[in-house]
Design brief:
about 170 residues; 7 helices; single chain; mainly alpha
Amino acid sequence: SPKSTGRPVKGISPRTLEVLDLYRAHMVRRNLAKSSMARYLTDLRGLARAVDPTPLVAASTEQIEVYLDAKQLSSPRSRYRFVSEFHTFFRWALAHGHATQDPTVRLERPRLSRLLPRPVNDEALAYAIRVAGPQMTAWFVLMAFAGLRCAEVATLDRGGISARALRIIGK
């Protein structure tokens, strides 16, 4: 629900909580996944606590850099994710009159290597199919020959399978 709990949160000003509630409502309207919204809001609350007493919408590039550096993120992808989340928030806040600047425009995004698929080799696939039970075999076949990912197999609905078509709901 886009409504606030109305409870104070330690280290976060009531105004910042109000802005985060408005941002939550914006994300609901965009139909973002609940898990994504929860992660974005958790990350933004963490930043808000780190820059306190500065209001979140007035955070500086330097404050965000210090926060990200202190997190000692395990990979460039993690840092990239945080910078992207914060940039999306500040772009929204600026467009809706909650911020006067976007401090993330000066943040460096790490250069990322391209992610490439790592398909299983034929021998390993044959072994997996040979030793798996019927349901697991079906999953392996769907992944290997229909290109489904684990998350798509996990959410597969039997009603979406027919002799002529396979209805997949993915990311």
